[in-house]
Write a structure and sequence with these properties.
Its EC number is 2.1.1.37. The chain is built from eleven helices and nine strands. The protein has a seven-stranded mixed β-sheet. Strands 8-9 form a two-stranded parallel sheet. Helix 1 links the parallel strand 1 and strand 2. The longest helix has 15 residues.
């Protein structure tokens, strides 16, 4: 018997990736409003019934009609309502209608009454309305009988070559404490870990080193070399012979000169003054580091003037495939639509390694296994390990 899962605000399937690749779980249905995202989800998860519609128009009635689902049939609901209203990158507005979509999540919980749910969002959720918003959200879920627990998790702690912090709320009908996944990796810049089972963070170079170099406006479809490490082996396990989506947009000559002048991990302050751009925030026009994890990938990773996204060695931003790799999507994972659609699909996703770690904790909880892990901790800053 498999645990039945419903995926809300599904995107291309990052949050549900771990559940989709474990035979003890079955994702019955997913809801996603954007057509290119829904198409990509369907191509990567063909057995899942995808509902490409506004979540306000999605309900248990759809599931009952198409799949025979009744209240209480679903074991797990996962989902991350759109996070733009909560993000610390860009404008934040409590009046943004996307910030109210947790109420639709709540509505579907009342209709399905799953044993457990996973609610994912950005770190900025913790500070909205002076911290009152997260309290209101948890209180709403508690009002229908769920025991709420929360932690701020960093995807790099679970093998993702990217620093990406996410709030993970877990609600359970059972009052037993939910144990969050114990980290598998540590930041070597903080010193040597006392836990010898932990591995150092996966670096950008380790994740991308087998992909060929490119110049602005170029594309490439041949791997540079055979896989050089376990991460690359995993990314290429089921990949086609040719690389898909390894391409970058064309940039003007002055921007290319700026990027050429940047050192590894550098910013405009590290280049000659006559080359420096006349505007931009402190993290714009910045190179990534080859021997560190990437900073958080956003939907604008193809734009050099956006948050740090310039390749550490080539004078160009990240390619579509490189960003997908930094999110943990293997090279056979498909994205749909225009380049901007694909970048949105990648930039908005939950890293697959984090999904897999959460899935393992959910499985242990539902099986009643008492394994080592992290108990709840309501924190506004990440716990250091």
């Amino acid at each position: 018997m498999s645990y039945k899962v419903i995926d809300l605000f599904a995107g291309v399937g990052g949050l549900s990736y771990g559940f989709a690749h474990d035979e003890e779980f079955e994702i019955l249905a997913a809801n996603e409003i954007l057509k290119p995202m829904a198409q990509a989800y369907s191509m990567n998860h063909p057995s899942v019934k995808i509902y490409n519609k506004d979540i306000k128009d999605f309900s248990i009635d759809d599931l009952a009609k198409d799949l025979g689902v009744k209240k209480g049939d679903i074991d797990i609901v996962v989902g991350g309502p759109p996070c733009q209203a909560y993000s610390t990158v860009g404008k934040r507005s409590i009046d943004d209608p996307r910030g109210k979509l947790f109420q639709e999540y709540y509505r579907i919980l009342t209709e399905l009454n799953p044993k457990l749910f996973v609610f994912e969002n950005v770190k900025g959720l913790l500070s909205m309305q002076g911290g009152d918003l997260i309290k209101n959200i948890t209180s709403l879920f508690e009002s229908v009988g769920y025991h709420m627990q929360m932690r701020l998790l960093n995807a790099a702690d679970y093998g993702t070559p990217q620093i990406r912090e996410r709030v993970i709320l877990v609600g359970t009908l059972d009052s037993r404490p939910f144990r969050y996944p114990k980290p598998t990796h540590y930041d070597p810049e903080c010193g040597i870990s006392a836990d010898k089972s932990l591995k150092p963070y996966v670096t950008l170079g380790e994740a991308l080193g087998d992909l060929p170099s490119m110049k602005t406006g170029e594309s490439a479809n041949k791997y540079k070399c055979e896989p050089e490490n376990d991460y690359q082996l995993l990314m290429r396990a089921n990949a086609p012979d040719e690389i898909q989506e390894h391409e970058v947009p064309n940039n003007n000559e002055h921007l290319v000169e700026i990027m050429k002048a940047l050192p590894d991990g550098g910013s405009p302050k590290d280049i000659p003054e006559e080359l420096r751009p006349g505007s931009g925030f402190g993290n714009c026009y910045c190179r990534l580091w080859w021997n560190k994890p990437s900073t958080t990938i956003t939907r604008n990773f193809g734009c050099p003037s956006s948050s740090r996204c310039i390749h550490p060695r080539d004078p160009r931003p990240l390619s579509t495939r490189e960003a997908a790799r930094l999110q943990g999507f293997p090279d056979d994972y498909v994205f749909c639509g225009k380049r901007s659609d694909k970048h949105l699909q990648i930039g908005n996703a939950v890293p697959t390694f984090l999904s897999n770690a959460i899935k393992d904790s959910v499985k242990s909880y539902l099986k009643g296994e008492e394994i080592g892990g992290l108990t709840t901790e309501f924190v506004a800053e990440p716990t250091l390990f």
